[in-house]
Amino acid sequence: xxxxxxxxxxxxxxxAGGIFLALRARTFQVALGLTLLSYAVNLFLFASGRLVLNRxxxxxxxxxxxxxxxxxxxxxxxxxxxxxxxxxxxxxxLRSFLESGSDHVDGDTVTGDAQDGLASDDTHGERP
Amino acid sequence: MTLxxxxxxxxVAIPALAxxxxxxxxxxxxxxxxxxSLVSCLAMLVSAIAxxxxxxxxxxxxYELGNWPAPFGIVLVADRLAAMMLVLAATLxxxxxxxxxxxxxDRKGWHFHPLFQFQMMGLxxxxxxxxxxxxxxxxxxxxxASYGLMLHGQGPARLKAGxxxxxVNLVGSSLFLIALxxxxxxxxxxxxxxxxxxxxxxxxxxxxxxxxxxxxxVSVFALKAxxxxxxxxxxxxxxxxxxxxxxxxxxxxxxxxxxxIRVVPQVFGxxxxxxxxxxxxxxxxxxxxSTAIGFAGVFVARSLSEQAAYLVIGSTGTLxxxxxxxxxxxxxxxxxxxxxxxxxxxxxxxxxxxxxRRRGGFADNxxxxxxxxxxxxxxxxxxxxAIAATGLxxxxxxxxxxxxxxxxxALPDWGWAWGVILVTxxxxxxxxxxxxxxxxxKRALSGEATAPAxxxxxxxxxxxxxxxxxxxxxxxxxxxAYANAAAAQVLDPALSARAVLGEVAQ
Lengths: 128, 506
Known about the structure:
The structure holds 2 protein chains of 2 kinds.
Chain A (H helix, E strand, L loop, with lengths): L2 H20 L4 H21 L21 H32 L22 H4 L2
Chain B lengths: L9 H17 L3 H26 L5 E4 L10 E4 L1 H23 L9 H17 L3 H19 L5 H32 L4 H8 L7 H19 L8 H7 L2 H7 L2 H16 L12 H21 L3 H20 L4 H31 L16 H16 L5 H12 L6 H27 L19 H15 L1 H15 L2 H9 L5
Antiparallel strand pairs in B: 1-2
């Protein structure tokens, strides 16, 4: 199993999990899905500068081979932005739950019920 | 380097400075904060007009941030199209801000003015940048600010719609980053002009990846532009937003359209191999479907603000029907209609607010209410806004649609385009006539008496928007000549490549 296969399959699994969770009905799961998706994107961006081992991104007298520094800068920007966005989405979801009493993404008709946290009645959440 | 050479950075720098200042003084001296916000918008308008004057002879200004040479550093590019969008954004911002201040909508929360300025910074930056990753960053700036503005005033309905809006845009941002990663991995550059040159030199085995990257990028722009089937987020978001904010948001879908117009000819133009004109087969049907959905929504909408939100979808669709031709004449007509449709949608959102403020609990719902203040004046404004929105003479919508209809005859599928545009216009007219006659001609015999209007000052902002539409109609010759020149410039990517990268690259 090569290093490339490991990174590629990790990104694939993260994206699949992210999409699955982002399509769920409740805001907490959606927020988790978005987080997974952003991890996958960060890994992907990092890999866009090609995967190389043990090479510095910045200038060093002793080395002749470098790794591309730009994707690392891009990933840093993307991490900062998605971190802020995720924090915002969590707070927004919480406010929305507290004000409307429902944590469903399209919660016009579904009212939240008190047993949600206790019973493992998750099928309730799947109903549109 | 003289001060005039720094002109392209001003539309980004002014709101970036005004926002923190407004934030700092807002708590103690509200009036000063409002003035900072207004002066900043005025300064943006002046600098945008100065930019138009500089670039209207065809020069393309390339501004290297931090003086880093072009393909390596970030570059701002001001050409005719960018300058035109800057003027449009600043004008719209002034109207929206004026309305917010006059109706005191900005007082429903603390941070309206700083957020408004950051929104403008993101918009102006997105119009100016010549670097794809920088475009992503400015998209995020404008989105973050728009989340705040959209939630301004709060309430359960806004919060619910806000969650959906934020989630959809976060997914869109992820796709944007994936597309950027692919493009960087393939070409090794993020500068749009440089990427356009390098895409042409890609090896055959990379063509599949390039096509995927191009389609992903175009889908993200289509999501921002609310093209069917990616339009579902828009109506709820816009209809529940504070009306002044919704008026400003009228330009947000146009940012997606602008990015399409900017990126596709530059990067995925004739030389792009498998990715050449990659959205072409999908864009025209998608645009027709969104036109149909938008005006069908106008036809059935239950309130004026919902109607305005559907109008945004419909007019963006109409605009994209012309864009999908990718010829100078169609793109020129599209750019003229873009300016018109942005202001018309904003005017309709503002009129909806004016109506809602006078009808008390009846708001702007399409149901008869007891007599309310200024019924005839507001009715006249609604009629003008509806005329502009549907594209009847004498306002600029008629000229815009006429130009689009005339220019698309050069395309193979023009019969479909004509059919869709003309039929949807009819549905739009019927829809507006239905809502207008209910709002302004029918009176409910019983019901609570509505509150008298405290002031007529809230009529000013929509009146300015309508006057601008009349001016756009009167100055149509000049405006369409400018739009055609801008379209010709955009469709010749070698021009901006020369301006950004210098003669060496050619």
